[in-house]
Amino acid sequence: MSKNSLGKTINLIYIAAKVRLGFLIMACTLAGIAVSPASTLTPLEILLLAVCVLVASSTSGAFNQWFERDIDSIMDRTKKRPFVTQELQPTNLLNLWLVVISCTALYFTYRVANLEASLYLFAGIFTYGIIYTVWLKRKTWMNIVIGGLAGSFAVLVGSAATGNTFSTAPLILSIILFLWTPPHFWALAICFKDDYEKASVPMLPVVTSISITSHAIFWHTFLLVLLSFTLIFYGMHWVYLIFALTGGLYFFYTSVQLLRKQDKSWAKKTFFASIIHLGLLLLGTMFDAMIFA
Fold first, then answer.
1. Which residues are CB-contacts of 139 (< 8 A; sequence separation ≥ 6)?
2. Which residue from 285, 226, 283, 287 is spatially nearest to 251, judged by alpha carbons?
3. How many domains does the chain have?
4. What is the per-residue pLDDT for 86?
5. Are 269 and 253 in contact (CB under 8 A)?
6. How confident is the prediction for the chain on average, in pLDDT?
7. How far apart are CA 269 and CA 259, in angstroms?
8. Residue 77 carries which DSSP code?
9. CA dist 151 to 30, 74, 78, Å?
10. C-alpha 269: how far from its chain's center?
11. For the whole prediction, is pTM greater than 0.70?
12. Among 41, 22, 285, which Cα is nearest to 176's?
């Protein structure tokens, strides 16, 4: 295999497995560790746990694209995905490998951390791969609301690995992730409403209106941004607060503008603001934990 061919294959796998999303889920786990009151995990154990979460998340991402290749072929946004173009062959053997790789990641999570962390990781990939992808996405506008639990479970993987699953800070962060997911995807759904209608996917702006969706985005954003500030009362410090304020206020501002203007332009800005907000929030927890360790 030539270097160009190998590079292309790796890039196709990266796209098909939604590895970029996997890194975000991995960051949620690291943030779960960061906000936990105490941890005996070594740097090597944290690294290995992060890799396990990344791998497990990527397997569920690959299954998602394999299962949705029929509707992906209808939507302009997704019609060039590797399983649609058949640059990667959507075989049943692939799913067997995804199961094997997922089980391997779960086993190593158990060995590196504990059984509880492994169970939360399983809950996360099952929520995204089966509950959201197979059971809910094509049937109800609540698809992404319930699917948002995948991010919450990722946080709990980290806190469980430290032995602090039910500590206040990790629970708050898991709720923040649960509240963050719907406005993030609803903003995207406003931008690509026509695509979702063509594919008969009942996202909120498809089954209701942009007005109702904008209100839902605003209230979710208001609650999660407000909730994010409470972490300073449970172990976080001024470093985290700077990150939370910067990302949170910008996300809230775009959601207010979307509520006022109710157009695709502000929906797009809100979508990207949600990414900036979550990225800053997760980085804030990690930097804060490292500085005040």
1. 202
2. 226
3. 1
4. 93
5. no
6. 96
7. 12
8. T
9. 12, 27, 22
10. 18
11. yes
12. 285
